[in-house]
Backbone:
C-alpha cells in the first residue's frame, strides 16, 4: 500500500465522519426541541466582506454595531496605509 492510497483512505474517512457528525448534530437539535415543548428563539446574523464593502444581515443592535466598527476599521485602514 502506497502513501497516496493511505492518504485517500484517511481523507474519505474524515469526510464520512464529518458528515455523520453534522447529521447527528442536526438530529440532536431536532429531537431536543421537540421534547421540551418550549419554543426557542433563533437568530441569524452575519457579515461578509467583499473587498472593502461589508454586507450585513440579521437583526438587533449588535449586528449594526459590529458593522459600524468594521466600516470604521476599513476606513482607517484605507485612509492610513
Residues:
Amino acid at each position: 500500500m502506497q502513501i497516496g492510497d493511505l492518504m485517500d483512505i484517511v481523507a474519505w474517512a474524515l469526510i464520512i465522519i464529518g458528515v455523520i457528525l453534522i447529521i447527528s448534530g442536526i438530529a440532536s437539535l431536532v429531537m431536543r426541541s421537540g421534547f421540551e415543548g418550549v419554543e426557542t428563539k433563533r437568530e441569524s446574523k452575519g457579515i461578509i466582506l467583499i473587498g472593502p464593502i461589508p454586507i450585513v444581515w440579521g437583526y438587533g443592535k449588535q449586528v449594526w454595531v459590529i458593522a459600524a466598527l468594521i466600516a470604521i476599521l476599513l476606513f482607517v485602514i484605507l485612509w492610513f496605509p
Summary: Residues 42 and 58 are 11 Å apart (CA to CA). Residues 1-41 form one domain. The first helix runs from residue 3 to 36. The mean pLDDT is 76.
